[in-house]
Amino acid sequence: MLLVELTVAALTLGGLYALIAMGLTLQYGVARIMNLAHGEFMVAAAFLAYWLVTGLGLHPLLALAVALPVGFLLQWLVYQALLTPLVRRAVSPAALEVDSILATFGLLFIVQGIVLVGFGGGYYSYSYLAFPVNVLGTPVSANRLLAAGVALVIGLAIYGVLVKSRWGTAMRAMAGAPRFAHLVGINPQAMAAFAFALGGSLVVGAGTLVSMFLPFSASMGVTFTMKALVIVIMGGVGNLMGCILAALLLGVVETLVSRFVDPGLTLAATFAIFLLVLLLRPQGLFGRAGR
Amino acid sequence: MSLLRINGLSKSFGGLRAVDGLSFEVTRGEVVGLLGPNGSGKTTAMNLISGALRADSGEIVFDGHCIEKLPPHRIARLGVARTFQLVRVLGTMSTAENVQAGLAFGSEHVFGAAARDASLVLLDRVGLRDRADLPASELTYIDQKRLELARALALGPQLLLLDEWLAGLNPSELREGIALIHDLRARGVTIILVEHVMDAVRALCDRCVVMSAGTKLAEGKTQDVLARDDVISAYLGVDHA
Amino acid sequence: MMERINLGAWVVAAVLVMMAVLPIVAPGDYLLSYGINLLQYGTLATAWALFSGPTRYISLATTAFFGIGAYTVAVLGEVLPWPAILLVALLIGSLVAFVVGLSTLRLSGVHFVIFTFGLSELIRQLVTWYEVNVTKSIGRYIFTDISMRQIYWQLLALLALALLIGWLIRRSRLGLALRVIGEDEVVARHLGINTTRVKVLLFVVSAAFMTLVGAVMSPRWTYIDPAIVFNPSLSFQVLIMSLLGGAGQLLGPLAGVIPLTALFEYLSGRFPNYFSVLLGVTFLVIVYLVPNGVIERLRSVFRRRPVALEQKGSV
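^ inputs. structure came back:
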């Protein structure tokens, strides 16, 4: 049935976008880094998964389990080595924003370049659970279903931790009022590094999941970064729930546009929504940072 | 003749009603003190008048124009200038250039060599003439305050909003500052003064409006208002039952 | 603001005149080709800095406008006379810039960066969609009788015009408004400056130049398709060059263009596969070592009184 097919597609896409966007909103909302290289790490993760699965014969879910901590560590290192010097020399949040945009823009080319050197510009994929499963009478690709499910689990887990746990709350506090973080005993630098790494591991997870059901290429990163940025703005910077909702909304819109208008116009649809949000509610559909 | 009339002005931030149904009038040529304890909404009121913030409801009429929905640059062009609570000078530009920025876009619309001369005149009035070519970031805090005032005056305003301009001054600087404002008043500039320094308020203000928790608590001649029990307890938090 | 510009202006004018006669005096395809490359990046970088320098809003949209210009030529190449094509390209580019500017420049710099980041990708996808679905063919051939020399001279004219406009703006009230906006936009508004209008105006002017460069350059390719013409590394290279020289000075971008054009040609020739990585590394080196640009770094070394470079944003 068309409705089921569309719903699953929308949820899969939305769930994936939610992971990527949550990662970015942690990086931008807490660590104040506007990471333009975000999507590149996702693509790199997809290629890493490809190598683990086809080269080393690992099960894709195992690859995911490997990728998450590796991604965390890598992004933590990126923050310490690349971004901490910028944080130190920034004279204002606006200056840090400009600097981080420039630095991550450069990082974008480096990461994309590395992937290009390793794999070239073509599309890659591997076969995993590529059989249909019956959902409410409609055949749905099993790998998509699994990816959506895992994304949901990870997303909810992260959301729960960030809302319920102490350091999660501390992180959200920092997103809301960074200047006062240290007044309540939060080490802003350590927290920022942690948030950045956590956000990065989410996007690495998303990349691994994507590799399970979508063919990927080195130049796809920019589109994902773009969509993540739009979702973060739409949801309100630092607003996790807003992020998730906006991601699902985008997933729905894209699925509808892809199905009923043209699959080649999905980015245009994203931009159109972005434009509308900018014109009508620039603080985001769901407003200020926090819960 | 009424230069500024505020009626039922309100502004909330989330659940907090920063300004709640504020109403008062300012006559041309007056110096009005806007007083109140911290958090009473004074700076928010100033921001609403200058256009930095947009009111939720209410009206502000300046010189016959309804300005509550106008962007700050339109309000500035109509003749409202202000200083900021936390000094905002244009750091990499020189002292004179800061003033020239005000001259270029204010009511006088002066640019080029004529602006340079006019800026020196204004700097002279605030005592900064000898530091005219220093980058503004190198001025002392007090001098930066003076620069902000000169820049505001460069707009040729009808209404000047001074947001705690006299804060943090030592006694002799305070005397100079008060004298400066007296001079402005003598030249016919209408001023709204947000202040905590009571000596200055008594010396400068004909009338005062006292705010508390976003609303107007009292209004009237300075010595009357400052003697009122409810005003005193608003500041001191003491219950005068 | 140095009023020593008089000497500098004459030097610049002399250089431009020399460059104008160069193809006649020293003919040769390689030199001409190198000159075209230099002028292309020189104009793009100068146009970029025209807007992004004073306002500190980082535009990543260079490719988008360049591509619009080039593609307009591809579409209208055999339909309209050359000057008319340039005019159409100019109008389209300006219109796009106007819409983008109006919707994002009212807001903070981040929204603008995000929008321009995806803009060229968006336009590329739109053009691709149009070609696939409406005209049913992806690539286009460009048949014009524009010679390399004519491309060279047109680019030179554009560069001269960009420098002239940049110079005029700096000395005008508009230039002052831009400086104030770059320092503190809140103060700018309270001084009576319509900051949105100023920003949009500058952005449109900057984009207009970029579009024209793209249009003028397009006869260099005999065959183009959206992927060729909307190449993201162009935005990046222009950004690097402007930053290296310093976007705060009028001639700053050119100071970055000259060494980097040579460097990038060398790198893309010797290490074509690693070009992207090397670009990124070069860029990071510049961002970390000379954030305000080489010229500003030199100036601060030679300045008598050390000035605190406490700027709001370090472009």
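The beta strands of chain B are 2-13, 16-27, 31-35, 57-62, 65-66, 80-82, 159-163, 190-194, 207-212, 215-221. Chain B has a mean pLDDT of 89.
thumbs up if we can close this ticket
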